[in-house]
Amino acid sequence: METCLKKLLAALLAALIPASALPAASFADDPEVAAFVAEMRDRHGFDADWLQLRFARLGPNESVLRAIRPAAVPELQRSWERYRARFLNERRIAAGIRFWQQHAATLKRAAVLYGVPEEIIVAIIGVETEYGQNTGRFGVMQALSTLAFRYPPRAPFFRGELEQFLLLARENGIDPLVLKGSYAGAIGIPQFMPGSQRRYAVDFDGDGRVDLTQSAADAIGSVASFLAQHGWQAGGGVAVPVRVAADPAPLLALGIKPERPLAELIAGGVETDADPATAGALIDLVTPDKETEYWVGFQNFYVITRYNRSSFYAMAVFQLAEAIRDGRRAL
What start and end residues bound the annotated signal peptide (predicted)? Predict the structure, then answer.
């Protein structure tokens, strides 16, 4: 009897949805979606009819698929100079100084609690969303569903993030169709994926809930929490520029995780005055038709790459952080 009532209610709700609100191609009849709905019901106690109704209002988003697919025609070669210019410019540095001034007490509290410098927290938020100005225009549930059920190369990952997102929305009493984010489903001022938000985000403004879309304090505390839980070393360095007097290929092949003392890198041709006992990894920043920049990244550099698996990203965060810090000191 109860099941019949649920089905009747779902049918009535579906009838109330205007035809203009329904997508041309819906997830409603997709067998993979039906199996996912059943898993969410059995594993987490979701109402299957309620969840199926929400999928019925969504269809695959071609813009999401275009954004995540590798370009059919190779784009310009990777260029550190071009990448750096996107994030290290007067506008973003000045906005970072203003953000720091506005949230100075909160940033200091996060730095003391988690051991992560204020400028690093500011820079990550600056790179991710320009201090909350560009948090994304895609429906998070639609973006994640599109990637979970229409993008086979990474379907398992995004299916897991869709699961985490639905749990997150339920925990916070939010209709999952409401939240907006990036084409990959990242949410809020610091662009956390749903799984990261559930694992690492914190209620830093003390209002009893985690809100990364509106609360700068929660965003600040959550970025610091994320870095700390990934092994940030308080007081440790991030990276130093070096010269390489031999073929760098063998050292670059070791990866960006600093698992060997600098003494081994020095023996391989790296020239640096840094402590030979410190663990480091060789980083190359390539710009076509220009001399490659070489740096040694320490543990904290590697930790930044846990936020985004890119040495370009980590170096942009580091250099933006230094520029913002120096600019604020000059004031």
Answer: 1-23
Please name every residue paired with 271 in a beta bridge, in sequence order, or none if there are none.
Answer: 243
Do residues 148 and 249 both lie within one domain?
Answer: no
Cα dihedral: 64, 66, 69, 74 (round 10): -150
In a domain, 307, yes or no: no
Q: 184-218 pLDDT, tens per residue?
A: 999 999 999 999 999 999 999 999 999 999 999 99
Distance of CA 331 to the CA centre of its chain: 31
| Positions marked active-site | 128
Q: How far, rounded to the nearest angstrom, does the alpha carbon of residue 307 sit from its chain's CA centroid?
A: 6
Q: How many domains does the chain have?
A: 2
Query: What is the pTM assigned to this prediction?
Result: 0.90
What is the distance of C-alpha 235 from the center of its chain? Answer: 24
| Residues 47 and 159 both lie in one domain | yes
The 10s digit of each residue's pLDDT in 33-69 is: 999 999 999 999 999 999 999 999 999 999 999 999 8
Q: What are the phi and psi torsion angles at 114 (to 5°)?
A: -110, -10
Question: Partners of 293 in the beta sheet?
Answer: 285
Same domain, 282 and 147: no
